[in-house]
Amino acid sequence: MLQPEGKRPYTVDVETAPNMAKLPPAPSREAGGSLHRFANPGRFLRLTDNWLPWLSGAALLVLGIGAVWGLAVAPPDWQQGETVRIMFVHVPMAWLAMGGYMGLAILSVMSLIWRHPLADLTARELSPIGAAVTALCLLTGSLWGRPMWGTWWVWDARLTSVLVLFFLWLGHAALVRAFDDAERGARMGAILALVGVVNVPIVKFSVDWWNTLHQPASVTRINAPGMHVDILYPLLVCALGFTLAFAAIVLAATRAAVMERRVRALQMAAARRADAAEA
Q1: What is the pTM of this model?
Q2: 18, part of any domain
Q3: Is 113 left (phi over 0), alpha (psi -120 to 50) or beta?
Q4: Is the pLDDT higher at 262 or at 26?
Q5: Most CB contacts within 10 A, which of 78, 112, 123, 213?
Q6: Residue 143, domain extent
Q7: pLDDT (mean) for 139-161
Q8: Residue 238 belongs to domain with CATH number
Q9: Residue 28 Ramachandran class (φ > 0 left, ψ -120 to 50 alpha, else beta)
Q10: Does the residue 1 lie in any domain?
Q11: Average pLDDT over residues 247-275
């Protein structure tokens, strides 16, 4: 039936019109809570435009303090000597590799359940950064292992599970870019991320579940940290600085992806108008 001009659109009871295709329901604001207010690309760009300079400045400041404290002020370890300074990079990279993957899993849940558009873009930009962080964790671990263990690599539970985590990061980065349909790639990547999240507790507790060459937890023990405060405090400062830098890089990459998508949409709209004008 035609709709008269200037009138409100007719409502249709889908139960009385079985032949009419049902459109997928729009994401509910209540279901996603306040997260949906960030689904607007313009609002996201405005907010992050204010956050990013402060976040980047804080990251540089804290990293500078941590670097001077850890490399110049902290004393050598009584067992490891100067080699302990590798830990000021290796340990934060390990924490970020696991914490970042948990963030990827949360973004995947938001994507699959609430169809949050920025969750897809953030996950897409997060996975290469997470892969780079995990690669740095493996590299610095090998640099530390050579003088401490006498070898660059051993196939024990901790190292192997971190290597699996690295491949999960790479797999997600490749999978979301493997489809011409970006939405389909995001769905497949989200499923992979949720399947792979089972590896995170394996990485964390591998030194407790199996007899490994890797040392057990030294910082997060409940009773007391397993290192002197002269090393522990600069390590925590470095971890905070690297975390702020990680967040700043992810935000900057997501902003670039949002702006790139908006430019592409404008170019496609201009091309369609030009084709319509020629027709």
Answers
A1: 0.82
A2: no
A3: alpha
A4: 262
A5: 123
A6: 46-216+228-278
A7: 91
A8: 1.20.120
A9: beta
A10: no
A11: 89
